[in-house]
Amino acid sequence: MDTNLDDIKHIRSMMERSSKFLSISGMSGVLAGTSAIVGAIVAYLVLEGRFTFTGSLLYDFILIAAVVLISAVTAGLTLSARKAKLSNAKLWQPVTLQIAKDFCVPLVIGGLFCIILIYKHVAYLVAPGMLIFYGLGLIAAGARTYRDVKILGACEIILGLVAAVVVGYDLIFWAVGFGVLHIVYGILIYYKYDMKSAKNG
């Protein structure tokens, strides 16, 4: 009887791995959140006129956002690859590519929308727009990975909507959404899934 149950659990695990991406690392969320908070602090100093990278406030913000994004993506891919290797799974598989597509569509649309907002001189809605579209991307991608990703996405959307109403605190909302929420999410993922995977490994 125990053997049959073990076989069923093994088959279920194999099916879940093929249909869902379970190699997301909690520590990558923590590192991404930390990068975002550091980026927000640097952006605040630039906004205060303490220093500048390019001589243009807009270009400085774009540069900071790019560095934060590259740091977060690099950390995510590196740690997820490590987790996949430990669990004898592949990082790049059909479900991974589908998640990337699901996630990128709202992000690209959101990015274009934010460019339009800047062009139309309503930059105070850029941070809320980024949070909302990022949240939509997480919800879209969350169908093929941990349910917690959808919850994070919902939190990002709610925060973005609040930021659109409470004007003047864009940088704070940005730091909370991309920084604090990611750190909290990363810690939860680490203790909920990563430690379990390490023990099973």
Automatic annotation (TrEMBL):
Keywords: Membrane, Transmembrane, Transmembrane helix. This is DUF308 domain-containing protein. It comes from the Bacteria. It comes from Dysgonomonas termitidis. The chain crosses the membrane at residues 21-46, 58-79, 99-119, 125-142, 149-166, 172-191.
